[in-house]
Amino acid sequence: MSSKGKKFGTLTEEWVRVKTETVINVKQRDTLYKWLINYILPELGNKPYNVYNYKAMQNILEKLKSTPETAKRVRGICAEIYMFGSKYDPICSAISRDVRNMEVVVEDQDKKRKFLASSADIDLIRRIYMTAKESDKSQRNMCALQLLMLTCARPKNVRFAKWKEFRLERKVWLTPSKRTDKEADHVIHLSRQALDLLDRIKKLSLEPEDSPYLFPAGDNNVLPDTAFASAMKKMDVGSDTQTAFGMRYSAETIMKNEYEYGAKDGKELHILIQTFMDAVDAEGKPQYPPEIFMKQRGDLAQWWADKLEGII
């Protein structure tokens, strides 16, 4: 089919047909249609598909400035549609990159701090993870950051993680909830990537080698609380962009928006994610029975690891 004179709206129709073949979650599909109809197509629909319309994109993001997470997701959809158009005109690949690099402005400083500290931009999260995985510098910190991201554990749990807590034959990590003095009361399922990482950590032979901890370091024999920030700083990712604790919120948001779980309703998915994250109440007690959804939590752990590596 000739692409001469093709409009962005026509390209979007083609993209939607392909996209909805894989998006089976009704809520996600309805949200996609809403964003296309309300924000994207009114600005870009009648524009040429292979021309970078900066002003139109700026108008879209301006309408969404009060909801920065939505703005970033809408921006990502526009970039994806432009990339889809590269099969007709290679210039669309460069346009897609320019769109994805557009800044989402957050005016409320308190909201900006919270938003940027736990970004739900999968491209950013994936870049942090893959950079840590491929780095040959500061292996202790980089491996700790990977484990944090793969398991969605609390930073303190990773810093104080002990080898005896891991049951590799069962592919689980038994860890105290919130690092209390109690025995293990939370089960973290280990993905294929997490198991490979543990094997790599073992081979690092971090000193002292007789330490019970995965990441022995410093005078107290445990990883300092600045280790994760230090690792991300080497990637030019500051604390105003992403924090170690914010990784849990980043993962949670992405899971809620993108995990296609065959639940009867959204409440069941919510409970699954909360048990996966070891959500606790004001008294530090689990919000839900910690033994529920075991198989589903294992499936979610593998999905998240594959998401980080760009496999899905």
Compact summary:
This protein has 312 residues and is mainly alpha-helical. It folds into two domains: 8-105; 122-308, Intergrase catalytic core (hpI Integrase, Chain A, Orthogonal Bundle), CATH 1.10.443.10.
Write the layout of secondary structure elements.
Blueprint: H1 8-19, H2 26-44, H3 54-63, H4 68-84, H5 91-100, H6 109-117, H7 122-134, H8 139-151, H9 155-159, E1 166-167, E2 172-175, E3 186-189, H10 192-204, H11 227-233, H12 246-258, H13 266-276, H14 294-308
Antiparallel strand pairs: 1-2, 2-3
Helix pairs in contact: 2-3, 3-4, 4-5, 8-10, 8-11, 13-14
Structure description:
The chain is mostly helical. The chain has two domains: 8-105; 122-308, Orthogonal Bundle (hpI Integrase, Chain A). The protein is built from 14 helices and three strands. It has a three-stranded antiparallel sheet with strand order 1-2-3. A hairpin with a 4-residue loop joins β1 and β2 (172-175). α3 (54-63) runs antiparallel to α4 (68-84), α4 (68-84) packs antiparallel against α5 and α8 (139-151) packs across α11 (227-233). The protein is elongated. Residues 112-116 and 179-184 have low confidence and may be disordered.
